[in-house]
Amino acid sequence: MAFTRPTGKHRRPSRAVRTGANIAGIATLTAGGVVAGFAAPAMAAADEAHRTEDTGLTQAIVMSDAISGNVDAQAETQRSAADEASVRQQAEKDAKQRAAEATKHAAEAQRKADAERAEKERAARDEERKRLNLFVMPIEGSYVSTPYKASSGLWSSGSHTGVDFHAESGTSVHAVGAGTIVEAGWGGAYGNNIVIKMNDGTYTQYGHLSSIGVSVGDTVTAGQQIGLSGATGNVTGPHLHFEARTAPTYGSDIDPVAYLRSHGVSL
After folding, report:
1. What is the pLDDT of residues 160-174, one digit of tens each?
2. In terms of DSSP H, where are the helices of the chain?
């Protein structure tokens, strides 16, 4: 024989439904502001009957508060970390900027130092060039006593191959310019003589010296003393015989006055 389940709601409500009803009821009573004395036994019975549900509600509230607290703590930690990261990033940015400025200043200082050094080196080169290209009189403050190409039987060629500068014996004789000594010693009719190969490829000769102060191979500069004037060799009195030549040998002479003037010497 078949049994038929009676219609209607005879089954126990599910836990979720019961919990929801309790919550709804509490909310309703709270909203209405009514606490009914006659309902107390029923409420107590319901509370006893559904202790698990009420406990679940309490746990839900407590868990909600704990979760909320954890969320707040996490948010605060994240804000703190973000603030620290921002401070660190700003510090790194400032440090990079200072480093870039320091590098820029150092580069500018280096460029300035390089420019100053280059200017000093250029000035030194110019000064050295002037010194090397400078020409002076062989005897300071003297004058030509016998001109170039003067005729006389005193010279084997029949004419003067250089000029004579007035000088007492023992007067300081200077190299007229920078060069290298290629001859220093006795030169026959020239007496004690010195021949210098100048830096420009020409040659100068200094004759009739009383003493010689340089040796072959020495380098000299303009105005450097190389000996003392005298009256050695074929002479009638003390003086300096000065020649300018295109080669170290006799017969390659050129006008010594014009030679000195072409190098800026006034006489």
Report:
1. 899 999 999 999 999
2. 15-32, 40-49, 51-133, 256-262
